[in-house]
Amino acid sequence: MRILLTNDDGIYAPGIAALKQCIEDLGEVTVVAPDIEQSGVGHSITFSYPLRIREVHLNNEFIGYGVRGSPADCVKLAICEIMKEGPDIVISGLNMGSNVGIHIFYSGTVAAAVEAAIMGFPSIAVSFDISGDYDDVQDAARVAKNVIGRILKHRLPKGSLLNVNIPSIPSDQMKGMRVTRQFAHDFQETFSKRIDPSGKAYYWLVGTDKSLHHEEGTDISAINEGYISVTPLRYDLTNYHLFQEVKDWNWDDITSYKENKE
Ligand code: MN
Fold first, then answer.
1. Cα 96 to averaged position of ligand 1 atoms, centre (Å)
2. Quick one: which of 16, 13, 6, 126 has its CA closest to 78?
């Protein structure tokens, strides 16, 4: 089995190294990842400057291909230029930090998996919640491997992907896994306002995983309760519930100049 492994934390990140080591016996792993951290870049792509691919060595060992671009760029380049044959599965992770709820829109980790799905390849995003005290990446990577192994026994339909989140506790304390839906409410995020040496204000976004809402059955409640969360996602964002209603609104004479004069 050919596995493309990518991430948004960068090719030198501990999560991708730990996951690579764990999944090496599942197949032939090709690592193509950003050469600097790209967390929070979402589904951005690069088209106004050139992309270069660099063979990356760590401790005299070839670890993969580094790309000065976004996670989505990495997936495109990996599939179009680096891998001779397309991957059987694309795995994005192991991200240090959960990707739940609205955060999946900002996530480069999830975007890489979405990009793979758009290109027609089955994909899984895997993230490790480190908001608690626990951050043993080796332990989380071993759990991630089990989850990936189970998923690989099944066929993912085209256009879909799985978003996996591992809770911030030791594996022997995890309660199991839950199939969840995306938490779709706001998170409590604020800006920390500071003053630079010249007296001007600047701002840091202070992200949290805390929300005013709590909702059973969601990705965030699962990891907060000690379960591995698996959320099936799709990239077709069409709101089919609203489709007919919007269609039924009055759209007569919409191109007429009369409208502008009223
Ligand atoms: Mn990241």
1. 6
2. 6
Distance, in Å, from the CA atom of 145 to the CA atom of 232, rounded to the nearest integer, reads 18
Q: How many CB atoms lie within 10 A of CB 101?
A: 21
Task: Tell me the CA–centroid distance for residue 197 and ligand 1, in Å.
Answer: 30
Residue 228 has pLDDT above 70, yes or no: yes
For residue 188, the CA-to-ligand 1 centroid distance in Å is: 19
Going from the Cα of 39 to the center of ligand 1, the distance in angstroms, rounded, reads: 4
Q: Read off the pLDDT band of 240 (50, 70, 90).
A: very high
Q: What is the pLDDT of residue 213?
A: 72
CB 113 within 8 A of CB 160: no
Q: Is the pLDDT of residue 198 over 70?
A: yes
Using the mean position of ligand 1's atoms as its centre, give its distance from the Cα of residue 185 in Å: 21
Question: What domains can you pick out in the chain, each with its CATH number?
Answer: 2-186+213-247 (3.40.1210.10)
